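#struct-help
A.M.: can someone run this one for me? Single chain, 125 residues.
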Amino acid sequence: MSIDEESVNANTNPSTPAPTNAYTYTNNGNVTVPSLWTALDNVQLCYTVIPQMKHYYRYGTFRNCADARRELSFAFSLKGKSEEEQIEITRQREDAKFEKKITERSSSAVWTLRTEPPPNFPPKV
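D.P.: on it. Structure tokens below:
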């Protein structure tokens, strides 16, 4: 079990959401402003020795923590802004990330569409 899973399982108060990443959407679709502490924890966890060594053993390179550093930088950049600005900037960033995720890689490059069913389909029992 990872440290993030332990912190999620250790959260016994159902009214307090457990942090999954630096920002999350709530159940009603509202965006939650990034937590500076959560982003800092993610950077610290990325650079810890054991996970770095495990990544080096498995892949032959050290783990790239650029995403965690970007999240921390983003959380820092929001600190001087009003709450409405923070929510709007975070929503725009989330929408841009979602749009990039959808348009960047398409599953149509992996799958080929069939014009007819495969031979011996359905199999006879």
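A.M.: thanks! The CA atoms of residues 97 and 121 lie 41 Å apart.
D.P.: also worth noting: Helices lie at 3-10, 36-46, 49-59, 66-77, 83-104.
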